[in-house]
Amino acid sequence: MTDTYQTTGAPLRLSGLRTVSLDDVVESAALMRRVDRKYLVPAATADALIDALAHSHAALQIAGRASTTYRSTYFDTPTFASTRHHIQGRRRRWKIRSRWYVEDDLCRVEVKTKNGRGETIKVAGPSSPERYGRLDGAELAFVESVLAETHPELSPSDLVPSAEVTYTRATLADLSAGTRVTIDWGVVASLAVGSAWIDDDFVLIETKGRALPARADRVLTSLGARPRSFSKYAAATSLLHDDIADNDIRDIRGRLLHCHSHSTQGLR
Fold this sequence. Notes:
21% of the residues lie in helices and 36% in strands. It has helices at residues 22-29, 43-52, 81-87, 137-150, 215-222, 232-240, and strands at residues 19-20, 33-42, 58-60, 68-76, 93-101, 106-114, 120-126, 160-174, 179-191, 194-198, 202-209, 257-261, 266-267. The protein is globular and about 50 Å long. The relative contact order is 0.22.
């Protein structure tokens, strides 16, 4: 899939933070089973959050970098069942993607499911950059083994690549609390029918923790931010497909979230 729009986003004030290694984050705050809370906020709010968390959080640094470029290809049914389940707010839902960490040239296949208690459970299987965006062979076998327990009604071999989402991510970790905060900017989604993107002046913050809100959530609340149901993938597909409900994004459509449809050759 080829992007028809490129974003840049605003750099964040990360240089003043202590740094932490990937190994330390994996050991203390991997949180493969967690509660996610998402916030779409101005970049200035993200900087205020970083300043407020400076004494408790450290910035993930890999090979001297404070951020990493992500490319993710999502797989769905031809009728976009994964997107529809998200928008319908089903407590048990799934998301499958091939993810490439560009600067590190690392690739893996990931399965994210939500259980009846609202917890997000993520499992990852090995892949390779040359197999990025593919769901066959070992990657398909891995997905089948995971979903056989959680979603036996789903046939992974019927899934097709439906969108590619790219962005830059910075990660903050509170090792003592075992929680993380990710900040994404320059978000662009490319589909066969067009592209969608988050406004350059806004970032997507996600807190990854336990049932009770973490310190980052409390700071964001004090800054006037509120958590919302938001999926980059589901937002893009509902924005570009008129037959998919846009419940989650109706209030930000055309303001924080934009698209270009190949069929209309215009912005909506």
